[in-house]
Predict the structure.
Amino acid sequence: MRTQVAIVGAGPAGLLLGQLLFKAGIDNVIVERQSGAHVLGRIRAGVLEQTTLDLLDQAGVGQRAHAEGLPHDGIELLFKGARHRIDLHALSGGKRVTVYGQTGVTRDLMETRAAEGLTTLYEARNVSLHDLDGASPRVRYERDGATQQIDCDFIIGCDGYHGVSHRSVPAQALQIYERVYPFGWLGVLADVPPVSHELIYANTDRGFALCSMRSTTRSRYYVQVSADDKLERWNDGLFWDELRRRLDPEARERLVTGPPLEMSIAPLRSFVAEPMRLGRLFLAGDAAHIVPPTGAKGLNLAASDVGVLYEALAEHYLGKSTAGIDGYSARCLRRVWKAERFSWWFTSLMHRFPETGEFGQKIQEAELDYLVQSRAAAASLAENYVGLPFDQH
């Protein structure tokens, strides 16, 4: 098989890039090791920046996100037993975020790609990448009992931290920056109405908690747990009791509980691999960087990588210039590191760190108090939360 661009990974980043390239008349094939049902069943984040919505619109798949998504103009910070609202819309010059689950984004992209008759190779086993430094890279995989090959001009790795793309780069060619946090998030997804119409981020002496939602009838809740905690130790009753202990009286009163659709523990880490390009291989999304979920940047960063890469490839094929692909890594990394900084800062502010004790808790509370009293400090949070503008070439 021959195509111009081979994309490894059929998550939202790979699917979005494939749709943008198709709209520009650039041939592409997506290779995915899991089944389509497995990809669609992943439970992920749900806060979209305006730049991500704009890219979905550009790809022709934003209609359902606009119709069903929940625009949010603010968030609430809970500390010392009281909630304080950060007006994102007013503080960021009129910007907002939209709550629309990553599952919905993936579904919309999958359905559109199938309707266009574009090639997605699900359940491709033993994927391997070859001749990344040459003019004609190749993707090999096994499917239906036979070894297949895709010849292409470029390979785009959108297959995450554990995917073959990241592993195909020689260790000596990458500079790795990483921070592993001493806690994780125990999360529950349930078909119950949200406790509030905006997200609540809670800093308590029992640890962090987050009240979020996927719709007006489906909620997503998290509590901070130790890094070595086990899911078997928890059940829905224990989870709801612990969440109540971390909320203010009004939120406790409004909390509606129910059987979980999903319960899981996610570790937290900050991770960046530089550069994001090796020859004809380009890394995007979690294949190149991971952020703690506190700042809601994971999907949005992946989408911004895709936006930059789409522009670069269109410039290469339609404008006959290599400037965009040559500058891809540097341009993306400027945005990545700003998002890493914000996610690290917000995580450090809201979570209980075992080593800092009561002094650390008091420092956090003082900073949170400053944050809600200072318009300048609140504006900085708002500007980063709704998404920084793209750097120019």
